[in-house]
């Protein structure tokens, strides 16, 4: 009977992450059954282009047999083992070596975790441990930015600069400070150039550091391109202006490459695209094409050596996860990295990104779109009630949800973030599917006009 349908069992038992729980009680789930290439199919057989690569992660699309085989081989050989207390295994060693060789700047060591949140949480702890090692226990505050997304653990939700992640969770915790969001369209003064905007933000950062006291600030976290905050590409000179200030006050830079890593922006790392030279780099998602949970934290030699000195004094580095460097996840990540290299996936992204960006930016002319922004194979549309005045729709979030729902009806999965919608397809997408994706998105936008303006 109806009580046994997957949808009714979902409503009966399943507490969904990132979901309007009240709406879910009436609306129920969209049940995805299988995937093939850049497409997924629901339990009625309906086809969708996955325009967000699940959650910004399925770089190789669905049905990549080599990843299935890599997992199966490792499952048979050594399905699980830990790496605490000097234990190790070949998949963990091999993946660490590969990542160090791929790093955008010289890095020394890799720590493994299971999610982007855990990688960033680890980076927070490493920053604190490092400053204890250097005998400056007061240098512990961490800077992040308004609209940043760094995860949902207590510390990383605090770094995240979005109200949903703070309100009702009593966050942020102490010692976290948010500086300006580098979104020119929203936050520039009238007539201010991108260059002048970046200069002003760098000055504002320095003012914050001086107000807090440079001796109290340990690190700044930054996504090269902000993802969940609305796909915000900073001005070209932003990091060039920010980094000397961090260096001046001996503040570490942590690059959160959880979305940008592994080709998304048209270079292997977003740090390369945006000119970042991080001391610590975190990555996840496309590391395994999302097939299994795994994340990594790379640290510079200076950070690593200080941590070794601290460990000499106090003993064990007291942090790690049961599944750090899980051998099956590591084997899948190694195979993923091999595929990236063999198929020159970054080359593919560079080849198709011009079409993707042309189709995206053409939508800036749509009556509902205030800004179309992006780089490589990631982008967003910001929906506005009035293009001239940039007035947002009210209440916040409705417009994105409307376009999101109409896209889904139309065979395209994207993601709404407030008044913006994001597109971030599997990196393997071809030109024909890029065109089809934007055709479906355009149809959804047109259908949204009477709903939002009606
Ligand atoms: N950092 C960034 C930039 C992210 O986009 C995400 C997730 O979307 C995270 C961290 C958190 O990763 P996870 O959801 O795997 O904990």
From TrEMBL:
Out of the domains of life, which is the source? Bacteria
Question: Gene3D superfamilies from the xrefs?
Answer: Aspartate Aminotransferase, domain 1, Type I PLP-dependent aspartate aminotransferase-like (Major domain)
Q: Does the keyword Transferase apply?
A: yes
GO MF term set? transaminase activity
Q: Which SUPFAM superfamilies match?
A: PLP-dependent transferases
CC cofactor: pyridoxal 5'-phosphate
Keywords tagged on the record = Aminotransferase, Pyridoxal phosphate, Transferase
| InterPro entries named among the record's database cross-references | Aminotrans_3 (IPR005814), Aminotrans_3_PPA_site (IPR049704), PyrdxlP-dep_Trfase (IPR015424), PyrdxlP-dep_Trfase_major (IPR015421), PyrdxlP-dep_Trfase_small (IPR015422)
- According to the UniProt entry, where is the signal peptide? none
Question: What PANTHER family does the record point to?
Answer: ADENOSYLMETHIONINE-8-AMINO-7-OXONONANOATE AMINOTRANSFERASE (PTHR42684:SF3)
Which family does this protein fall into?
A: Belongs to the class-III pyridoxal-phosphate-dependent aminotransferase family.
This protein is called Aspartate aminotransferase family protein
Taxonomy of origin reads: Bacteria, Pseudomonadati, Pseudomonadota, Alphaproteobacteria, Rhodospirillales
């Amino acid at each position: 009977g109806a009580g046994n349908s997957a949808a009714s069992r979902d409503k009966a038992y399943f507490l969904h992450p990132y979901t309007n729980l009240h709406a879910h009680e009436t609306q129920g789930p969209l049940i995805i059954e299988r995937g093939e290439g850049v497409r997924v199919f629901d339990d009625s057989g309906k086809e969708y282009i996955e325009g967000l690569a699940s959650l910004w992660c399925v770089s190789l699309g669905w049905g990549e047999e080599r990843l299935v085989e890599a997992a199966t081989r490792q499952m048979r050989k050594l399905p699980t083992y830990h790496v605490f207390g000097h234990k190790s295994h070949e998949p963990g060693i091999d993946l660490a070596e590969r990542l160090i060789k791929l790093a955008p700047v010289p890095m020394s060591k890799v720590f493994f975790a299971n999610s982007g949140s855990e990688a960033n949480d680890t980076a927070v702890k490493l920053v604190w441990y490092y400053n204890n090692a250097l005998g400056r226990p007061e240098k512990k505050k961490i800077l992040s930015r308004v609209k940043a997304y760094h995860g949902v653990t207590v510390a990383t939700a605090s770094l995240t600069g979005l109200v949903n992640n703070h309100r009702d969770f009593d966050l942020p915790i102490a010692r976290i400070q948010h500086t300006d969001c580098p979104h020119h369209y929203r936050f520039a003064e009238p007539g201010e150039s991108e260059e002048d905007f970046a200069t002003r933000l760098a000055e504002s950062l320095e003012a914050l550091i001086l107000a807090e006291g440079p001796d109290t600030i340990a690190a700044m976290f930054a996504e090269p391109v902000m993802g969940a905050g609305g796909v915000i590409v900073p001005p070209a000179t932003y990091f060039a202006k920010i980094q000397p200030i961090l260096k001046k006050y001996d503040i570490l830079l942590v690059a959160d490459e959880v979305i940008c890593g592994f080709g998304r922006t048209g270079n292997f790392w977003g740090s390369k695209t945006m000119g970042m030279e991080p001391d610590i780099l975190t990555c996840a998602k496309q590391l395994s094409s999302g097939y299994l949970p795994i994340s990594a934290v790379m640290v510079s030699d200076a950070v690593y050596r200080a941590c070794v000195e601290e460990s000499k004094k106090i003993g064990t580095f007291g942090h790690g996860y049961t599944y750090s460097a899980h051998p099956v996840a590591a084997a899948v990540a190694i195979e993923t990295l091999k595929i990236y290299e063999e198929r020159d996936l970054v080359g593919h992204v560079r080849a198709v990104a011009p079409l993707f960006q042309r189709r995206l930016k053409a939508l800036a002319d749509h009556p509902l779109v205030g800004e179309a922004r992006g780089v490589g194979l990631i982008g967003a549309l910001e929906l506005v009630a009035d293009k001239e005045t940039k007035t947002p729709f009210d209440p916040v979030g409705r417009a994105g949800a409307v376009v999101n729902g109409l896209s889904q009806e139309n065979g395209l999965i994207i993601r709404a973030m407030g008044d913006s919608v994001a597109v971030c397809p599997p990196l393997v997408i071809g030109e024909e599917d890029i065109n089809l994706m934007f055709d479906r998105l355009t149809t959804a936008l047109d259908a949204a006009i009477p709903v939002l303006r009606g």
